[in-house]
From TrEMBL:
It comes from Chionoecetes opilio. Its main location: Golgi. Belongs to the glycosyltransferase 49 family. Keywords: Glycoprotein, Glycosyltransferase, Golgi apparatus, Manganese, Membrane, Metal-binding, Signal-anchor, Transferase, Transmembrane, Transmembrane helix. This is Beta-1,4-glucuronyltransferase 1. The keyword Nucleotide-binding does not apply.
Amino acid sequence: MFPRFLTSIVSWRSVAVLALIACWLQITSVVLSWQLRQRQLVSASEAAVVEARRQASRGHRAPPVRHRDFHLGPKISDDHQTILSRIAHWSVLDSSGEFRVCVGVLQRVGESLEWMEQGEADVRLGITLVTQCSLARLHRLPPLTAHWQGPVSIAVFVLSGEVQAAVQTFHLLRKCYPSVKENVTFSLVFPLNSPTSPHITPTADTTPCHQIFSAMHQDNYSFNGVQYPNNLLRNIARKATTTSHMMVTDIDMTPNSGLHESFVSFAKKNGLFSEKSSEEKTVWVVAAYEVKEGAGMPQTKQHLLDMKEGGLARPFYQELCLKCQRFTDYPAWEKKKSGGTEGVSTMYEVLWQDPWEPFYIASTKIPLYDERFRQYGFNRISQVCELHVAGYRFLVLDSAFVVHEGFKTVDGFHSTKDAEQEKNRILFRQFKTELKMKYPESSRRCY
């Protein structure tokens, strides 16, 4: 009896083991089948994205792509659907995880596939105007391109419900202004979740050019509780450039006419476009002024100086923060008068001092802006401070300037300006401490 009992136990255990093995094999088969299906889906998705990009680069229209962040209404043309498809495929999260960004969603005509095939060397020799704004301030773009007359890269901030309106506005600007179509590359930044502002979406096929912005009324820095990410926008616009040099400005700062061509000539003459340029760690400071609203834009340095003598122009931020700009040394800059016909040239070098925040032309390889700075205060100065600590030189250019239309006054700012500035002041102190660790060999500090 005992041997039979052992035999029964062994048989039962064998059956149990075999059952477990069969169950394990079945589960493994299901898992492997699921993984294979997922890989096939991913491969198909990647292939679709690659094909969409290839078709877009060749000028073909991609099929509409449904995405939870966008509503593709029946009145949107194929061109709009192509752009929205790119946004749906290409947009990624920023480092904070709060915004989605799409770099170069609509490129300038000069950056078409045929032009790129001429060679990367041709692409890199030049300078791009890098700027940023909200959707409601895009009306400043056409006059900006008229003055710059060269490549422009702009990052536009919208609320998540304004993406469609932004894309249609981009197309309208390209249709109505040849300089925009020829020279401007658009990038887009929008928060993951945000309410829609009361913008009225224009219809690209019927809206007259003079009414593109008629329905847009939005105060600067006012986005229903969403903080305006100015430094993120600057970095995104920078990433969309294809030239070796850039000038970073705000949308309301207009360069003097001919500055693009003048600096390109200056750069070629002095070998700045060479990979072995001796000025690799140099930025070229551009004087900044503000002119009385309605006084018109000065075309040359002499014209600007005449306006200043007549009380129609003054150094930028003279009333708000003179020390933020005075280290440019405006008396020295103004002392040398010229008609601006001989092009730009270097005048003198300035050693950075706190809180100087000049506008400048530089290589696209310089340090990025710290994206923690949002809203008002310390967003530009933090980056200039890092340039100083990193060992960059600041050379002031003659006959080169940018102008803000309208005098900056204390009562011209939004109500939360002071609170935002104080918050960013605390962040700036932390930022300066971090620079000591980032550049341990540097003897320079932001004092």
